[in-house]
Design goal:
Layout lengths: L2 H27 L5 H19 L7 H27 L3 H26 L9 H29 L3
Length: 157
């Protein structure tokens, strides 16, 4: 095992032990939920944290791009649903909402372009590439969340 692989293995092992310990503590501290509910919640949170914290290596470039493309596809599905709601809204809301949706489409197009450029990523620029893609993805998700909240405030359920 190479030194880098050994270090990554140790980091993953330490993260796993930390998450399990945190989960056990969380289960022990919350008495209002059933044990089954607590374990389900901890398992879900542990999986989310582990996936979010995962640092894809250059060798895992294809897996990283596939994960980000799946996130982009989900964001686009949600954006299409939001656009459909806008089309059913009043004229006063439509104009502002369509501008927000256009901005969101620009974000997703930028993310798609970054993912298309993944083939150009090298070992030396891999960390910057990942950071840029994650930054664009996070900004898109945040802007979508804000647009959805704004629209729900404007349109009565």
């Amino acid at each position: 095992m190479t030194t880098t692989n050994h270090i990554n293995h140790m980091k993953n092992k330490a993260l796993f032990l930390f998450l399990i310990t945190a989960g056990i503590l969380a289960v022990g501290c919350k008495k209002k939920r059933t044990t089954s509910e607590q374990l389900d919640r901890v398992q879900t949170k542990t999986a989310e944290v582990a996936q979010d914290m995962r640092d894809f290596t250059f060798a895992e470039k294809d897996e990283f791009v596939a994960k980000m493309r799946a996130e982009l596809a989900e964001l686009n599905r949600n954006l299409d649903e939001l656009a459909a709601k806008v089309e059913k809204s009043s004229t006063a809301v439509k104009s502002d909402a369509q501008a927000r949706i256009a901005g969101l489409r620009e974000h997703t197009a930028r993310l798609n372009k970054q993912l298309d450029e993944a083939t150009n990523a090298t070992v030396s620029n891999w960390d910057k590439f990942k950071a840029d893609v994650r930054k664009t993805s996070d900004a898109s998700k945040q802007e979508f969340k804000e647009a959805r909240q704004w629209l729900s405030d404007k349109i009565a359920p």
